[in-house]
Design a protein that fits this description.
This protein is 0% helix and 51% strand. It has 436 residues and is an all-beta fold. It has a domain at 60-211: Methylamine Dehydrogenase, Chain H. A six-stranded mixed β-sheet has the order 2-35-36-37-38-3, with no helix packed on it. A hairpin with a 2-residue loop joins strand 35 and strand 36. The two termini are 43 Å apart.
């Protein structure tokens, strides 16, 4: 089993040409606890599942549920099943297989000591290649990127043939691409501090490596944004760096004011993933998640001088930042489970139950009790709670779309495929049709 910190890092798919506009890659998701309770959704349409199924629990690098086209791929009984998305009808299955990734009209599995690509519609084998002890499999731009205990491999999606290998046992998972460049996250010895590698996309040769670093967080004008892990160092600042994507040469350092001490205690908490970027702002979650600060990306700012925040966000009742910004909104959760969307910009300051809120009191979402999981796919926020209810909220029109009630004690990631939503928990899956 890999160290638990590795699950923190972003699998950042920075595909395509480098954009002039910075591209954030912070994943819009939050995973919380499982439990039980009650919640009310007065006036919100309730949807019932079309079908449900039991699934196996997935270990690191494995997948329990994936969607592609009109298929949902499930890990069941130690093998892989392909079911019809609308009906749940079993289409094909492969015993003794592990679900890894989808690719165009295919699905990648590991079967014994082989990585296998199968047709999505029939399950027929397209190719196999020898591969053992897989940590991570990702598909992008006609290539399959695999992480193993020995290092990294790039395979042709069309044939399964190896394009190149890079032997480095500290690699943990693929972290995205830019034209001609592939990024990998790594574990830097004891006590497992993270590192970032940039490899040549054609040969796999090392372009550069940054130790004690998380990223890339964003790409802009041929540069990528990295963040210092920050476990060792001053607890009153966070440091980020724009580097040349190809050479690794440092272009600009950014230092942000911070306070990593938990309120009312002497505990200092730094996880390494507190900072992120959503143009034109940097964000920093500190004070054990009770505060979110927003900073303007100022190219003229001196890198060694900590910038003061433009806005400081908080929520009432010991609210904790969960995810955002999405559609210009930030999600906070109170100690009692109240979920609140707060605008990321604007000037409507208010003091609400002791919380200073610069853009207004925001909108409280239907439901109550601890949030188990929050995901954003497109303009839809899925908010699952520990009482087995899940709210789908339309961020574009600022309105609840529907809710689902299930005999579950929490949720995993929500997936969307066309007009369907696939809801998951640790050992079950349920499918609802979002639109008639």
């Amino acid at each position: 089993m890999l160290p638990s910190w590795r699950m923190w890092f972003v699998v950042a798919l920075l595909a395509g040409a480098v954009q002039a506009q910075p591209q954030p890659v912070q994943p819009p998701a939050y995973q919380g606890p499982n439990g039980q309770g009650q919640a009310a959704y007065a006036g919100v349409r309730e949807l019932r599942p079309l079908w449900t199924a039991k699934i196996d629990k997935a270990e690191y690098g494995q997948k329990a549920v994936l969607t592609a086209g009109n298929r949902v791929l499930l890990r069941v009984g130690g093998g892989v099943q392909a079911r019809d998305l609308a009906t749940g009808k079993l289409i094909w299955q492969v015993p003794g297989a592990e679900l890894r990734a989808t690719a165009e009209s295919g699905v990648l599995t590991t079967e014994g000591k082989q990585l296998t690509l199968r047709r999505l519609d029939t399950g027929r084998v397209l190719w196999r290649t020898p591969l053992t002890d897989v940590y991570d499999v990702q598909v992008q731009g006609g290539a399959v990127y695999v992480t193993t205990p020995a290092g990294a491999q790039a395979l042709s999606l069309g044939t399964g043939r190896t394009r190149w290998q890079f032997k480095q046992p500290e690699l943990t998972r693929f972290a995205g691409t830019l034209p001609g460049i592939v990024f990998w996250n790594a574990s830097q010895g004891e006590p497992h501090f993270p590192a970032v590698y940039a490899l040549d996309g054609t040969s796999g040769a090392v372009l550069y490596r940054f130790g004690g670093t998380v990223g890339p967080l964003a790409a802009q004008d041929g540069q990528v944004l990295l963040k210092d892990f920050g476990v060792i160092g001053p607890d009153d600042r966070a440091e980020l760096t724009w580097v040349d994507a190809r050479s690794g040469q440092v272009r600009r350092k950014v230092t942000l004011q911070a306070d990593f001490q938990c309120p009312g205690t002497s505990l200092v908490q730094r996880r390494g993933d507190e900072g992120f970027f959503a143009a034109p702002f940097f964000y920093l979650s500190d004070r054990c998640g009770t505060r979110l600060t927003q900073f303007q990306d100022d190219p003229k700012a001196k890198g060694d001088t900590p910038q003061a925040p433009l806005r400081t966000f908080a929520a009432p009742d010991d609210g904790r930042f969960r995810l955002g910004p999405v559609e210009g909104l930030l999600l906070f959760e109170s100690w009692g489970g109240e979920a609140r969307l707060i605008r990321a910009t604007g000037d409507s300051p208010v003091n609400f139950n002791g919380a200073e809120m610069p853009t207004g009191a925001g909108t409280v979402l239907p439901g109550s009790g601890p949030v188990s999981r929050a995901d954003v796919l497109g303009d839809r926020l899925s908010l699952g709670r520990t009482d087995g209810t899940l709210l789908a909220y339309d961020l574009a029109v600022r309105k609840a779309a529907y809710f689902v009630r299930l005999p579950w004690r929490g949720f995993g990631p929500t997936l969307r495929a066309g007009s369907y939503a696939v809801l998951t928990t640790v050992d079950q899956v349920a499918v609802v049709r979002e639109a008639p």
